[in-house]
Amino acid sequence: MQKLQSQGVHHITLVGAGRQTSIDFWEGVLGMPFIFEQPNLDKASESHLYFDPGDGRLITIFTDESRTPVKRRTSTDPGCVHHIAFAVSRVTFLQAVARLDERAIKHSGVKDRGFMDSIYFEDPLGLLIELASYRFEPPAGFTHADVLMQAHKLRVARGDYAIAEVHLADAIQALVERRATLSEDRAPKNPY
Asked: Is residue 96 within a helix (H) or strand (E), and if so which, with residue range?
């Protein structure tokens, strides 16, 4: 047997209500450009809206004008989606509480996740949305996943409960130290 190797999220499709509800939320609140629309090719009564979440991938919504928003939390039963997290820059994250408050959108406030900060709120149809902002930038040539995997290894080796900022800093250093150097001794020094 061989794996069916994934290379990233292609798109996520959600069931929406009316078209304008989706446009107002995905573009009007989260700033995702509405890039195209076509019929749902499997169900003629629905339209298929496409939004760019900021990385060139897609969030798509099946809309139907006969459906109205149901303002209750979507199911969290096994097999259901708990939430969708979107990356935001630090400067946007620092404005998120005020910008949600000005729309009277109920939210969690800032949650400390050790390696990132998060804010949670529901979309108009009850899907939990997370705005997430990493506390670090990976070294050039590495990804956030590379840093997190290295930080996890350090956390486990040290017997710590969860990834903290010290694990991230040490993980970044360890990844950079994989690169070649002309120095014979890469140990920390105090030149003062």
From this structure: helix 90-101
